[in-house]
Amino acid sequence: MTARTHETLHLNAFLMATGHHVAGWRHPDASADGGLDIEHYRRLARTAEQGCFDAIFLSDTLAMLPGEPQALSRMARTEHFEPLTLLAALAATTRHIGLIATVTTSYNDVRSVAASFSSLQAISGNRCGWNLVTSSNAREAANFGREQHFAHAERYGLAERFRAQVQAHWAEQGGAPVQVLAGDSEAGRDFAARYAEVLFTARPSFESARSFYLDVKGRMAAHGRTPGQLKIMPGILPIIGDTASEAQERHEQLQALIQPEVGLSLLSDVAGGTDLSRYPLDGPLPELPLTESGRSRQQLLVEMAHAERLSIRQLYLRIARARGHLAVVGTATQIADQMEHWFRQYGADGFNVMPAWLPGGLDDFVQRVIPELQRRGLFRSHYTGQSLRERFGLAGPENVNEELVHG
To answer: What residues does the Luciferase-like domain cover (predicted)?
Structure first.
């Protein structure tokens, strides 16, 4: 497969309250209360639009994150706006950038989801996308009257029916939001090959990214689809400096701000909710029981720990940056080099940019990395088209599977 030379990549700004690094809120220039500050998000939206990002991407959960209350109180990411409401507000203060909200199929109502996104489409001028997820946070079950969380396979069966019913509502109205998915498991890959138009994934290395990319794209033909109908966008957390040594100093500054109980709590969460506090911090990661939470991310952690012989402490220091996503520390040129390599060699169609801290991490990327990508002809310098679908170079909404709609 020859390197692609005439295409441009796609970029989403994945905004997480105070930033993606678990200690980002402690950075001296961070907006530590940003999760509940609309002006903070308005500023971020304007910055992302100035950088010509395809879209703003927001995650969500319908319960408190797993972990000890003391640790959760030191993350500055447990309190934030509901994404659809927030994006409706940001639609009024932006003109071009897309607006992608995460909404689970596990604990929501079909008609409510369909109507909410239809409203956001109308408010934004067809600039929205739905990141469909099957809830990985098992705590959500209790909030909706269930004694146990849905089993992994059951969640995907429910998601398939839910999606078809929502699409049926949109087909009656004309015009559907861009379908975004996030998932790395076997079930998630096949679901994405069938339905996703944009796919968010965690890939810490180029080799794993390329393997994942070719696997998912290779599954599409069996579902009557072509590779161009899907944009695969891994997460990337950049820490940028004028020199490589300055970037490393910035990285070390953030790492030094990680509190052990917070790092351990984050690791326990990503590991599927397993309590790791009873194990020695400088000992190996124990065998983890299979859970009904995020299985693919749990497997990624296990593989990383075993391959690099990481202790629990070393592992939580590693994932505190980006929770298993690609983290790049360097100059704008070095970061652009890595992004270009992944893009040209079929490891990604673009990236979900995950600033380590906010607002400065996003400012740095827009001021330093975006111009370098534009200089190389890898990224747009101005918006064209009106809808998010046009921004991603996607055709109109695909036909809804009649058997699923009427079955």
So the answer is: 21-349
pLDDT at residue 85, rounded to an integer: 97
Which residues fall in the annotated binding site for FMN?
60, 102, 152, 156, 185
Report the binding-site residues: 60, 102, 152, 156, 185
Asked, as a colleague might, if the bond just before 204 is cis with ω within 30 of 0, I would say: no
User: Is residue 291 a part of any domain in this protein?
Assistant: no
Sequence-distant (≥ 6) Cβ neighbours of residue 44 within 8 angstroms: 13, 15, 56, 358, 359, 362
Reduce the DSSP state of residue 398 to 3 states and report it: coil
Q: What is the pLDDT of residue 293?
A: 59
Which residue segment(s) compose the domain that 222 sits in? Answer: 10-241+325-406
* Helix H or strand E encompassing 129: strand 128-133
Q: The domain spanning residue 338 has which CATH number?
A: 3.20.20.30
**Which residue from 102, 112, 67, 98 is spatially nearest to 81, judged by alpha carbons?**
102
Residue 14's contacts (CB-CB under 8 Å, 6 or more residues apart) are: 20, 57, 58, 59, 235, 352, 353, 354
For the chain of 407 residues, list the mean pLDDT of each consecutive stretch of 10.
Answer: 89 96 95 95 98 97 77 80 97 97 94 97 97 87 86 88 96 90 89 97 95 98 97 98 98 94 82 79 82 67 82 88 92 98 98 98 98 98 95 76 39
| Total domains, the chain | 1
Q: Is residue 250 part of a domain?
A: no
Tokens of 404: 């699923």
pTM above 0.85, yes or no: yes
Written as one letter, the residue type at 8 is: T
The verdict on residue 106 lying in a domain is yes
Q: What span, in angstroms and rounded, lies between the C-alpha atoms of 7 and 3?
A: 10
